[in-house]
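A common beginner's mistake is to predict each chain separately and then try to dock the pieces by hand. The better habit, illustrated here, is to supply every component at once so that their relative placement is modeled jointly.
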Amino acid sequence: MEFPPRLSDLPLIAARHTGAIRRGLCRWSRAASPPPALGDRRWPAELILSTWLQAETGAPAASAPTTGASAGGFDRLAFRELPASEWLPEVRPIDLAIPLNRRAWDPPIEIPVPWYGAGMSFGSVSERVMLARAMAARRCGTFTCTGEGGYPDSLVPYREHVITQIATGMFGVREETIQRARIVEFKYAQGAKPGLGGHLLGDKATMAVAKMREAVPWVSLFSPFPFHSVYSVEDHRKHVDWVKAINPEALVAVKVSTPTDVDMVAVGSYHAGAHILQIDGAYGGTGAAPEVAKKDIAMPVEYAIPKVHRYLTAEGVRDELTVLASGGIRTADDVAKAVALGADGAALGTAELIAMGCTRCANCERGRGCTYGITTTDPELSLFIDPEWAAERVGNLYAAFAARLRDILRHLGLPSVRALRGRTDLLEYRPGPRGAAA
Amino acid sequence: MSYHRYHISCEACPDVARHPNRFRVRVIRWRLARMLLHELFHYRFNLPVVTSRPCVYGTFSGPIGGFAPRPSQCVGCLRCTIEYPDMVRVRPNPERRGLGDSYFTPDKVDTVVQEAATGQIPVRGAGYRGAFGGEAWDGMWTDMSEIVRPTRDGIHGREFISTAVDLGERPGVLTFDGAGVPSVPLPHSFSLPIPMLFDAPPLSVEDPILCRVLAEAAGRLQTLAILPLPRLLALGIRSPAVAPLVRPEEIEATVQLREAPPMLELDGWDDGAYRALKTRFPVTPVYVRLPLEHDPLPVARSGVRLFHVTADYHGRAAGVFVGEAVRSSHAALVKAGIREEAVLLGSGGIIAAADVAKAIVCGLDAVALDTAALVALQGRLEGECLDRGTARVALPRFEEAWGVQRLCNLAGVWRDQLLEILGAMGLREVRRLRGEHGRAMFQADLEREAFAGIAGFEG
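With all components supplied together, the output reads:
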């Protein structure tokens, strides 16, 4: 029997379920066995539960899994740790900071951890989630990115830590959103749907989302691919010039996917004047994408990182460009492996959502699909995410990642994360049949 | 003659047989009753609050709510079990293990059934969830371009991509006499608007309705269905969209074909039978159906240029996966200098939309769909389905119109996904994809390049 709620009931209903969800996350993250239907090969149940635990405690879980069960990529790599007698002492500080601007000009920006939040648009996630990510970024001194759905006013107080993204649909891009950002990101492509542009299905294009994007509500919004104004590296340079004309102090980040010539794309981005290159591998997250694009188009980031690193090195420009890996970075170990393969750091997306309680049920494309209120634009469901609570969870996850990363570096005898870059000699490959369980 | 843009009309065509739910939902009723009683007092009989459910999909929205959950509605978000760990358990439905076989896995079956039912590309949130790579098509990725597009017209330029393929004869040169008249017979060429045909079904399901559905669907799609000659004759199927599959011993029976078919296929290599077919049907392109492990060059030396190469239903040909075997065949024809004259139609192991593109990248001109078409019709694979002779598939009872629409939906959705892949590459026609190995990335190559030098890697 249905009892339709009155408007006045909504806060009470939200409070009832919010409390139950939080208690459940806490309980399951300590349970002896996970929910039977939780997890997949990229994110097995144990990995999701350990992420919840880290988000709650802020410390790395002692027996946490460090890999998934995908039987490839990061899940086949491990570190060749030194004997315990050669580990760096606990008292010795380990430096996790990386510079985001490696050029001799433009403002120097350094972040204290080698990652920032990847672009997630208003529409793909709720404004409350965006706000939580911005709050967490400020607390940790790093950045988060708006994605291509515009820049909600609620993020303005955090502008020092918010990257404005310009993508092909130009949704919500305005002079003031470029002027207020310290970093402006051009999204050329996204790993989960490379070459296909953006997808926001009509269900999620609510009045608020449509207003922010200057579009029609309840109509699916497909941003084109690629930038219709870019045919070459020179055209990309023109884009960079355009941003610099509006905001001369801004650093420019470029987010690209992983085609076979990703190395050429990287060097092209460098020559176009980019400061940061984010290579977004095929197994990255998304609010909505054709299933065929998630698996079958473009290579996983594990293969792209060394390719880019070596090519930039051979071209003599590696130390002038910050390379961030994204698209499948789930743990601190993945961050470290990405760095060892040649990246400077990483951009995190799905891991932050898992910290907020995501179970990876993959229903994010629907307006009321996310029953946890994370990847929804529904005003009722989004009440389940309290920005303060979620920011605390994301901040805790960052702290746990940082602690684990320091441990890894200490066990490798390295004083800083910068010293790990490109050190494939510190990795080992654990072979097994392709596609079989690790 | 007016311009006609090829279009496949897809429409919702719900399942006729029950497809197993992904999940089972179990509620401990006495705990639910106890909680409701407690909350009635806690929330002072505010029923909308007390009965608000931890599910927006309707799993607990039946007449008696959570006391009789509806697992068909469950999408696996697990909020119910997260909120109420002691009261609700959601489990993967063990019934799904019976779907498909070891190659056509339950997830692949789900996808094909969904595509055939909805006529829409599966679009979902979150990222990829499966194995990193694999030995089969999973160990191959198609390329994309950051900048190049098929055209800058339209949103993605996809509307202008051609999926047409030429499958008829295409001699390397034409010769003319002094008067400018061709001095050799003109080639008998034909094109299909999609690089997909329907292959002859397994012997266990060659029932009349299936054959008629394949023929009718092929007609609506303007493609071809390859059907065994005896069945065609027995059922009296006369369709311009049917290519008879003829065994060498059935050559004489071809006299019963009243019209020249658009294409003929000889089942296995037999020089005499091939010449007889060519003589009897001088204007019909004649394909030779060969197992993929069979070297096509000796047959090509007999003048054959049209091949239908087959792997088993798991994509294996003498222990080699179809992708690799096709690359070898393609390379052999290139080396012999006759690839541009030859056509490679292929089947076996193609069970997803991306497989079509990958097979074409490896070197096929077009593919013939086998088990995928049967699964689209909700056929249940019984045991391991390996080849036409031994595979057992149980089809549900269905109307012909339903079957035709399901196959049209499948073809339409697969074509749309092919357009996505071509669009991502910046290619404007599928013909340019054939044998373009540089448009693909193979796991073994990528690993060797990325991980060479890492301890323990022996790739």
